[in-house]
Design the sequence.
């Protein structure tokens, strides 16, 4: 298999070379169930007699369907029992049939279908007609462990020509989200500016099936350009020439955090990140029944050409 040697739970390993290793050499890595989720937030609807704790429903697993689907769960006349159904986003929800099997409310995972399990925080305090719904998105969760990525700083296409250079960012990005930084030349000047300000923008949606826009707050105060100065989230900014920039010109850079998780709805294009455990999708022992749990995997050389784990 081009992905390497299969261990367990969907994990493959592959060595870059077959020589240069010694008995007792050991590698260890942690396999996480996921860094984010393939489900939308759960929405609760009912008679508002149910407390916040009793209304808390957990959705777990990795959705294995080929098309996005909405799931609904509803409490029956016997308030310890529930029914459920699922339907595609393009279908008529009112005509969707409920699953024939009724289930008892539980604080342990209850398997529904296609990799989806649910459980409640409590077993009591629920009423007839209480209902929960969420959307399960098709695709697979791809998690790559890599260094934080600082993109190339690019000038805006509307910039006035003639700036003396492009600012440079260095350091390690310590932020917890992917952001876009807008750097704008400012000050009381026209074409010989030596001050700048900046702002940070976030995507309006984390779901790849939705159209997202960059949104942020206002600009920072003005700063004088320096050869090297603290910027934001562990990064520093450097200006090659400390003046001679046109007022209003902007420069844009995108920063990506570690880890980076991508939930593709359609086939994924090659990532800018390189995977440590390539081609692996971590699964539970019986992935059709229960969600996976975090596990630590250890690899140790048995002899010069074989390993155990």
Sequence:
């Amino acid at each position: 298999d081009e992905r390497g040697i299969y261990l367990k739970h969907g994990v493959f390993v592959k060595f870059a070379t077959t020589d240069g290793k010694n008995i007792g050499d050991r590698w260890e890595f942690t396999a996480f169930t996921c860094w984010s989720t393939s489900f939308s937030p759960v929405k609760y609807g009912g008679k508002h007699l149910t407390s916040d704790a009793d209304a808390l429903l957990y959705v777990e697993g990795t959705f294995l369907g080929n098309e996005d689907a909405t799931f609904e769960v509803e409490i029956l006349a016997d308030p310890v029992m529930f029914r459920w159904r699922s339907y595609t986003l393009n279908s008529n929800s009112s005509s969707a049939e409920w699953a024939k099997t009724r289930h008892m409310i539980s604080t342990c995972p209850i398997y529904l279908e296609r990799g989806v399990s649910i459980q409640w925080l409590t077993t009591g305090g629920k009423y007839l007609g209480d209902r929960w719904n969420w959307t399960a998105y098709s695709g697979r969760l791809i998690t790559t462990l890599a260094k934080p990525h600082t993109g190339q700083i690019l000038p805006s296409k509307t910039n006035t020509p003639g700036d003396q250079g492009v600012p440079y960012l260095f350091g390690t990005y310590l932020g917890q989200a992917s952001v876009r930084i807008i750097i704008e030349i400012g000050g009381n000047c026209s074409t010989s500016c030596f001050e700048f300000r900046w702002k940070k923008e976030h995507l309006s949606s984390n779901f790849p099936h939705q159209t997202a826009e960059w949104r942020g707050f206002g600009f920072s105060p003005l700063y004088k350009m320096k050869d090297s100065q603290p910027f934001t989230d562990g990064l520093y900014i450097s200006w090659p020439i400390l003046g001679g920039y046109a007022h209003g010109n902007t420069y844009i850079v995108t920063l990506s955090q570690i880890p980076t998780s991508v939930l593709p709805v359609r086939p994924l294009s090659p990532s800018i990140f390189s995977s440590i455990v390539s081609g692996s999708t971590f699964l539970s022992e019986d992935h059709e029944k229960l969600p996976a749990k975090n596990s630590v995997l250890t690899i140790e050389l048995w002899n010069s050409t074989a390993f155990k784990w």
Notes: Residues 260-281, 284-292 have pLDDT under 50 and may be disordered.
